[in-house]
From TrEMBL:
This is Aurora kinase. Residues 34-55, 82-101 are annotated as: Disordered. The lineage of its organism: Eukaryota, Metazoa, Ecdysozoa, Arthropoda, Hexapoda. ATP binds at K125, K144, E193, Y194, A195, E242, N243, D256. Residues 115-365 form the Protein kinase domain. Its main location: other. It comes from Bombyx mandarina (Wild silk moth). Belongs to the protein kinase superfamily. Ser/Thr protein kinase family. Aurora subfamily. There is a cross-link at K240 (Glycyl lysine isopeptide (Lys-Gly) (interchain with G-Cter in SUMO2)). Its EC number is 2.7.11.1. The keyword Transferase applies.
Length: 383
């Protein structure tokens, strides 16, 4: 069984040890207090979160890394045997029993010394992501490193807390796993599932646009993930190609939950996310609910097929106007069935948008993305 395939057993000690994020964020709060007492912290507020644009600033980090030539990714962790379908259930039972033994291991805490670090996978405003290998199992992960100082300067402690608390509890093949986290005096480390093929945004830029089969398969998988999120009372609120990763088998995975919220009963009024993907109710400051993710699904469908978001314009004022009145132009090569689906998702009134369960039943999805179909991208790579 290849690394990354559904059903592969994660080393038991990589599962999140039962704990809350409270201790992590108490440490940030104490850091804030210490900086206030010492007078070292600048009074200015820098690196504000921006709702528009897709640029990411560069960050530097001085963490010792393995030499490039010494970091080779195994197809599966070398310390674990390959398993076939015949013994998959036995391995699952064995893993479960080992997990039971680990439940009482409250003393287990992670540190940077538990990992071999490889190449950078990405750089962002608040830190970097590195390829890493857990030393005990040789299990390959992505290590997201966030700087406490930049989190404090931008006053986004609540966002990081949400990302940790929500993503740690979600279990779905189309959602990036968060295995755990730890921190030191200056940094927070998030242990994440490694998505081999990187961001969907990068892949889309390289190819210009996707054919309808590829786009439909990714819309199908994202729909399934959003249905799962909504059953868990989670609204993502920032669906876009930059926040979607492509796994080992070219499967789509939702990655960034920084703007997500638990919404058990209330309707939200916070303006968040990327301008191109904001729904009409969000740009007008109206209360919003799960339907904002349905709107974003329609925007993403258009961008995958065309290469640009549907409300792309020269300036933000024109973009706002296009979103508010749903002004969309479809290229001639877009099929009528694809237009029909997008037209039912990109509706001004939230309650009139096509329910996610009905998206999976839409003729465009059924025709281009039947259950079990893989993206043509994967087939072309195998050839």
């Amino acid at each position: 069984m290849e690394y990354g395939k559904e059903g592969y057993n994660i080393p038991p000690h990589l599962h999140l040890v039962d704990q809350t994020a409270g201790c992590l964020f108490r440490s940030i709060t104490s850091t804030r207090s210490k900086w206030h007492r010492s007078g070292d912290r600048s009074s200015s507020r820098r690196n504000r979160m921006q709702t528009a644009g897709r640029s990411a600033c560069q960050c530097n980090i001085n963490i010792p890394k393995m030499p490039t030539d010494s970091f080779k990714i195994p197809a599966v962790p070398s310390s674990r045997p390959l398993c076939s379908k015949a013994n998959a259930s036995d391995n699952k039972d064995q893993t479960s029993s080992r997990l039971e033994l680990k439940r009482d291991d409250k003393k287990k805490t992670w540190s940077l010394s538990d990992f071999d670090l490889g190449r950078p996978l990405g750089k962002g405003k608040f830190g970097n992501v590195y390829l890493a290998r857990e030393k005990e199992s040789h299990y390959v992960v992505a290590l997201k490193v966030l700087f406490k100082s930049q989190i404090l300067d931008s006053e986004i402690e609540h966002q990081v807390r949400r990302e940790v608390e929500i993503q740690c509890r979600l279990r779905h093949p189309n959602i990036l796993r968060m295995y755990g986290y730890f921190h030191d005096e200056k940094r927070i480390y998030l242990i994440l599932e490694y998505a081999k093929h990187g961001a969907l945004y990068k892949l889309l830029k390289e190819r210009g646009r996707f054919d309808e089969k590829t786009a439909a398969i990714y819309i199908r998988d994202l729909t399934k993930a959003l249905i799962y999120c909504h059953t868990k009372k989670v609204i993502h609120r920032d669906i876009k190609p930059e926040n979607l990763l492509i796994g080992h088998n070219w499967e789509l995975k939702i990655a960034d939950f920084g703007w997500s919220v638990h919404s058990p009963s209330s309707r939200r009024m916070t303006l968040c996310g990327t301008l191109d993907y904001l729904s009409p109710e969000m740009i007008e400051g109206k209360p919003h609910n799960y339907a904002v993710d349905i709107w974003s699904l329609g925007v993403l469908c258009y961008e995958l097929l065309v290469g640009l978001p549907p409300f792309d314009a020269k300036d933000s004022h024109q973009t706002y106007r296009k979103i508010r009145y749903v002004i969309i132009k479809y290229p001639e090569y877009i099929s009528e069935k694809a237009k029909d689906l997008m037209g039912k998702l990109l509706v001004i009134e939230p309650e009139e948008r096509l329910p996610l369960s009905n998206v999976l039943k839409h003729p465009w999805i059924i025709e281009n993305a039947p259950e079990g179909a893989h993206p043509p991208l994967m087939n072309s790579e195998q050839k």
